[in-house]
């Protein structure tokens, strides 16, 4: 059954996320000196989205430091280092205190080191880290209830990303259920797998696999498989914007009541990714995907998802989510729109 398969996939992803604490050994004599003079000795966990994650032996949990407030950084380990121009390095690193406009971040041995500005460093990942330790992602759960008509809605979503060199794999699960104890109910389940490979500092290629069930649109299951090529338009330590295009094949199964339970389509694909982050305040991630049909003239499908997260305490946050799935010409008598707005409590790892 499609819904059972989606629940199984969601459970499997949740178990994987729960194991994210597994790790391999790494040196614990890394040194961080902040601009206010504070000195920390311990282990560099990584850098992402303007936050340097660091843990000393006397800390119960790793702390997140504002990367722009770090004055010096020393380590004898090797790291995967990604710059804002898209270049990748696997080498040692060193941050020397200097003027903000100077090249004060050094990659590699002193004699052959590559030097860049500190804020040109986008991501740092320990090379020694195992698979689970390199996972980054979120888990969200939301619930709402209206006493006037006994209407309720639950939402669960989880996402995990794994990066290795120029490769990035992202898996996500979204499940929304709404209904009334003595009335009708609607559910939407979606599983997405996304692969990206960086070809050059600006260009990347990849593929996608998507499963969608939507009672609102009478969809029992829509399976989408596609390939794409994209370009990074903007990539800084705070914001990234990229566009992509490609081709996709779609298999749709509709409920028996619609009279046309199954269709197969070929689609073009165009999309936009937007991500921005402000330290300890706002985190916004959005994706727009448009599928003009190549087999049904005049039909265009659109998916848009946007998530806004505000930190409450450490890795705990409050989330606001918007989702829209639009079909300009459904092959059956069904709603064109499936739209939802929700809030949730979430955890980031």
From the structure above, extract its key features:
single chain; 349 residues; mainly beta; twelve-stranded antiparallel barrel; eleven-stranded antiparallel β-sheet; 5% helix; 62% strand; globular
For the secondary structure, the number of strands is 23
Strand percentage lies at over 45%
* Fraction of residues in helix: under 10%
Summed up, the helix count is 1
Summed over residues and divided by their number, the pLDDT gives a mean of 86
Shape: globular
Protein model, in words:
The protein has 349 residues and is mainly β. It is built from 1 helix and 23 strands. Strands 12-13-14-15-16-17-18-19-20-21-22-23 form a 12-stranded antiparallel beta barrel. Strands 1, 2, 3, 4, 5, 6, 7, 8, 9, 10 and 11 form an 11-stranded antiparallel sheet that branches. It is globular and about 70 Å long. About 3% of the residues have low confidence.
């Amino acid at each position: 059954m499609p819904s059972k398969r989606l629940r199984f996939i969601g459970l499997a992803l949740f178990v994987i996320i729960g194991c994210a604490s597994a790790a391999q050994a790494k040196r614990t004599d890394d040194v961080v000196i902040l601009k206010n003079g504070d000195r920390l000795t311990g282990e560099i966990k990584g850098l992402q989205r303007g936050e340097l994650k660091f843990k000393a032996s006397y800390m119960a949990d790793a702390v997140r430091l504002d990367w722009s407030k770090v004055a010096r950084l020393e380590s004898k380990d090797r790291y995967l280092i990604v710059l804002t121009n898209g270049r990748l390095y696997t080498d040692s690193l060193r941050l020397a205190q200097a003027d903000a406009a100077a090249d004060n971040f050094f990659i590699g041995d002193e004699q052959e080191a590559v030097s860049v500005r500190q804020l040109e460093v986008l991501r740092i990942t320990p090379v020694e880290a195992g698979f689970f330790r390199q996972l980054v992602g979120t888990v969200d759960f939301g619930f709402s209830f209206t006493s006037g008509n006994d209407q309720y809605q639950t939402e669960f979503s989880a996402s995990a990303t794994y990066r290795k060199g120029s490769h990035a794999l992202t898996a996500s699960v979204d499940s929304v259920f709404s209904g009334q104890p003595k009335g009708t109910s609607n559910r939407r389940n979606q599983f997405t797998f996304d692969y990206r490979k960086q070809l050059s500092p600006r260009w990347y290629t990849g593929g996608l696999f998507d499963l969608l069930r939507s009672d609102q649109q009478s969809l029992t299951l829509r399976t989408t498989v596609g390939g794409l090529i994209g370009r990074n338009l903007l990539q800084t330590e705070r914001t990234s914007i990229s566009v992509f295009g490609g081709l996709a094949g779609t298999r749709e199964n509709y409920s028996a009541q619609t009279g046309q339970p199954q269709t197969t389509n070929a689609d073009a694909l165009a999309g936009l990714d937007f991500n921005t982050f402000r330290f300890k305040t706002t985190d916004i991630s959005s994706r727009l995907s448009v599928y003009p049909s190549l087999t049904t003239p005049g039909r265009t499908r659109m998916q848009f998802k946007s998530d806004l997260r505000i930190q409450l305490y450490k890795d705990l946050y409050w989330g606001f989510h918007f989702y829209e799935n639009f079909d300009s010409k459904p092959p059956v008598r069904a709603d064109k729109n499936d739209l939802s707005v929700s809030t949730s409590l979430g955890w980031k790892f």
